[in-house]
Amino acid sequence: MPLPPFDPADPLGIDDLLQPEDLAVRDTVRRWAADRVLPYVAEWYETGELPGIRELARELGSIGALGMSLSGYGCAGASAVQYGLACLELEAADSGIRSLVSVQGSLAMYAIHRYGSEEQKQNWLPRMAAGEVIGCFGLTEPDHGSDPASMRTHAKRDGGDWVLTGRKMWITNGSVAGVAVVWAQTEDGIRGFVVPTESPGFSAPEIKHKLSLRASVTSELVLDEVRLPADAVLPEVTGLRGPLSCLSHARYGIVWGSMGAARSCFEAAVDYAKSREQFGRPIGGFQLTQAKLADMAVELHKGILLAHHLGRRMDAGRLRPEQVSFGKLNNVREAIDICRTARTILGANGISLEYPIMRHSTNLESVLTYEGTVEMHQLVLGKALTGLDAFR
Question: Is the pTM of this model over 0.90?
Fold first, then answer.
């Protein structure tokens, strides 16, 4: 039997591991991103705006991309691998778009789906799955990022109500959200609250002057004695286990998504190397350029294989948080390295928004930090490998 031809876009034949329904999900999201994001994202990035975000959310809901790995309540019930493929395609367009989807589905919706009451699920999830309501997730604070146990936001009982006071920082979707899942200290430990953003005392000023994730809405959340009914609390979890499990679910999407940004830069570098001529020949014909492209391809497709492996473990109910840390740590670091190498192949053109490389490079600096810095994931793995806790 003759061997199949070598495919430069899939050198390891990873597509052979995918089912037809997996490919259908991937192709649907890729077409949507090509039509609705790629023609405009450089301008959005340059102006630091994401116009029409509510319309984009509704469109993402219409293709089943919001909360897509959740079941029921209007969610698609897709597999973890299918959700990962969607994240890859979205981040190949822009990290900001993937962040919109990740925060909506893997943080806000996931928290309500896993820990909420039936009334909370019925009230919020169908509208969020359709993109009619955008959600955000309030955990990080101005003075407490990697150490959420020390958060200052607190909720106190007042008769039959809860009263929330505090601030959250670097919150994706905050200024456009209709609902916020906010974590706060209580006398019983850390609890999650479902906060309608029209509640008196709630405000979400947008953070400006970002040099990364510019095609994304990032906000501060200010809670000034926000009064909520007793049933606003997520009833099924107490303690850090709640928000950390949500973060683990979202980090899984980053394992895939970061490879989308890397793929975009790699493809741009290959195309450029084949057409750019120096010393009378395409630069792709020089050994040093080919060495760079080969190394980039190896790390890119190793990262996709790792993401696929973790996705299959998640679908089998066997994915541990430490394994998600493994994937996030490796894939984001390698994606950044691929983007930087791609920039060297494009030379000065690599810093132009005519090409995607500098945009992806700066976006990935945020992806490297949020949902667990390099240092935190190193310590998670270090503890798992040695049994010794270096956090304290």
Answer: yes
